[in-house]
Amino acid sequence: MEQQPTAVAFKRLDKVREVLPIYPSPTPLRLPELPCPQRKPAFDVPFTLSTHIIPAAYIRTTTPVPVPDSLRQDTSKDEKRQGIKHIHKYMENARKISLSGSEGYPQALWNCVNRYTRNNSNGSGPSTQRITLFFAHANGFTKEIWEPMLGYLLSSKSSQIIDEVWTWEAVQHGDAGLLNADFRSGSFDTTDNSRDIVNFLCNFLPEKATTEALPLHLARVSETKAAERAQRGFMGRTLVVIGHSFGATSLIHAASLFPKLFTSLVLLDPILLEPFVQEEIDRTIGLVLGAIGRREEWPSRPAALKSLFETAFFRSWDPAVLSVYVDSALYDTPQGTARLKMSGIQEATIFLDLQTPTEAFQRAIEIEQQIHLRFILPGKPGLVSFAGSDKRMWLRTGNSTNTKIRKAGHLIPQEAPRELAEDLNRYLLESFNSVNRDLHKAHIRSYL
């Protein structure tokens, strides 16, 4: 149910950091291959999946710091508790050190993306008027985590106005995390994920959707084209971006800095911390400690699936999503075990970044009015109180709507993929019905 906007009052930050520019990454001596075999999607709809690699934005906000060792699984409860406390203290200090430099650090990294393209799109005629969807995942998940929801969405009526879907993978997650394994750091700043996303959209997203196969390493567009996109947006695409949690926070920064790239911004329970509210900061401590103590290895994938399902955190998930998670978030080690591609320590580095979500709270108000904002929030208690949710979803009242997925908590795509797909289906048809009408008219003309 849509809520009516109310005035939002909060104490503003004196200053929001300037985000580093996006520099082109130096040409590597050797281009990497995918660390895991190309997989098939977890749905059966007329869209084709391919996975691609791009260089991340060059110059990173944080200076690399040593990564503490993960806790051994055979430690006692007391040893584990003390170990988590020790690692937490180290990582808090490491983050301060990593941000002490103001000019960034010259590190070349990689991102991965999945592309799902229509089997019958030809890149010309009415299909160029369809929309492109871009999804950015939450902390700790992979680019594949959206597939159960996509299976429903791409089987719905709105699939007729969707030309292409791209799902994002941040540098320490999933396959991208394996590619960057030698350059892991004990600190991370979420603005770098925002910069990486903009880097992809400006410099590597192909000009228009097509059924043609694309190379593993996507080609960089010209400097002129990239500048044109940043200043004017896309000529051959209507871009709708959907972000969850950490991904939504990243997109808020991206949209506030490069508004012309975006037509619509759909935010699934974004991590937005109200400035100077200690209660919201305190809530994140449990997330950090939980990530540090996370189990990372199992004897096999079936053993991992069984073990995860027996925990309260994963038991609330849709079974199809849990299956995709085990398939995509783990890799087979040389010892024959199944291990998380992203360690709990890496997950904790993101939860420790409280500055970016606080700045995003303020940046959300500044997003230009021509970008439609859509907040999708949980119907069950999440990372913030319901009062806090109500405040967030009307940070910018103009050209903004919101809804709640009643059966889900914070992990909306994991717990309610069908319901999320149904909501996105309605939203896309209502928001882009003019595109739908153009397609219908073109279809009729083709028979005249």
Automatic annotation (TrEMBL):
InterPro entries: AB_hydrolase_1, AB_hydrolase_fold. Pfam families: Abhydrolase_6 (PF12697). Residues 134-422 form the AB hydrolase-1 domain. Gene3D superfamilies: alpha/beta hydrolase. This is AB hydrolase-1 domain-containing protein. It comes from Crepidotus variabilis. The lineage of its organism: Eukaryota, Fungi, Dikarya, Basidiomycota, Agaricomycotina.
